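Q: What would this chain look like folded?
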Amino acid sequence: MTTFVLDTYCGGYCGACPQYLATKAGNAAELGLEECFGCKSGAVAQTWCATCPLKSCAEDRGIEFCFECPDYPCPQLDAFKNMPECPYHQEIYDSFAVIAERGKDAWLADMRKRWSCPDCGRAATWWDTTCAGCGVAMQGYDKPSPVK
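A: My prediction, written as structure tokens:
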């Protein structure tokens, strides 16, 4: 049995990923998505995360988070942070600061709160600006329009 894993090498939070949440809910296939159990689970979908150069680099170096690398921050991580199609990447350096100061468990607790509805507690994706359960306003990001 594959275990769900919420943290990533790059400082992202899998718990707000639509693909991860669909897998956890058991409806990834129904939504036309591959199952993904999280970056560090060993069972990632064959999308960006499966071929992520940051993940490969961290695994090759035997580190748990990019900030543990002697080359941190590197140009590759800076480019990842500033990807316009993924505005939630902006948060990775803040995540690293919390993990370094308070530990991974405290950061995960912060992320669960950050990416859940403040009223009903339903898990939310990066793109949710209103809760799908109760309609309350959320702190998600507006999904960028596709480039034409």
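The chain has a mean pLDDT of 93.
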